[in-house]
Amino acid sequence: MRQRFSFARLLASTSLVAAVAMGLGGCTGMSKLSDVTGSIGPRAEAAPPDPARAAEVYGERYRANPKDADAALAYGQALRANGQRAQAAAVLEQATIANPGNKALLAQYGRALADNGNFQQAFDVLSKAHSPDNPDWRLLSVQGTALDQMGRHDEARSYYASALKLAPGDPGVLSNLGLSYMLTRNLPKAEEALRQAYASPRASARVRQNLALVVGLQGRFAEAETIVKADLPPDQAAANVAYLKEMLNRNDAPHGVSKRTPVASLSQPD
After folding, report:
1. Which residues partner with 134 through β-bridges?
2. What CA–CA distance (Å, rounded) separates 63 from 109?
3. What digits encode the pLDDT tens for the residues 223-234?
4. By the 8 A CB rule, do 37 and 110 touch?
5. How far is CA 58 from CA 68, 86, 95, 240, 247, in A?
6. Which pLDDT tens digit goes with each residue over 20-67?
7. Residue 219's pLDDT band (boundaries 50, 70, 90)?
8. Measured between alpha carbons, how far is residue 217 from residues 10, 42, 166, 191, 212 in Å?
9. How many Å apart are CA 160 and CA 190, to the nearest integer?
């Protein structure tokens, strides 16, 4: 059955999906946090699996020597994973001051700024984290999401195109591209990009949720439901389906960005 929805209002509520994409930033496997800088932590041991515990462990090491770049990187990533976004940005800002020119720190700091909605500053910082002669496709993708959040969609897509030249077929970048088209109401193009991402064996659950959202926005709810349930246990699948249906039927949604979590982010972090 075709679902009725007010697209302009729904688009406002779902614009957060691009922010989710930015948190994932074109990684293959849209992290919160398999990060653009890789897995950061002590070389000889794995990071504690619990984000709160990781923040505690790395926080102690950082406080012992706040100028240590590796400690700041590990602590910043742990804070981001634990949802302490403002603190992560503050830690990483101080670390970049103490270690000028450290590209790994700049990359992490740029991501933290994007987490906090400081999109222009994030874009500028990320521009310093790599260079035109040695670009990082992951950072290009994150810069694209920052541009999308600032409404500069054509520029954003040029960044995704550059990222895809370096990482052809990457599902995270393709998902970001699809969400970019979604934000400008070009749903067929959005679906085309997300279908390509979905076809990749490296596609994350989040990529598939993004596809389900775009399919649902076009009124094909039964198909969206099939996609949204594909890789989730029954309880999570039911929650995703219920929320997707709620979004598509919400004709009285207030203007502005919804504070509710978009369906694309209901799956477990990658």
Report:
1. 131
2. 18
3. 999 988 877 788
4. no
5. 11, 17, 14, 34, 39
6. 333 334 333 333 323 333 333 344 356 677 889 999 999 999 999 999
7. confident
8. 9, 44, 31, 10, 9
9. 13
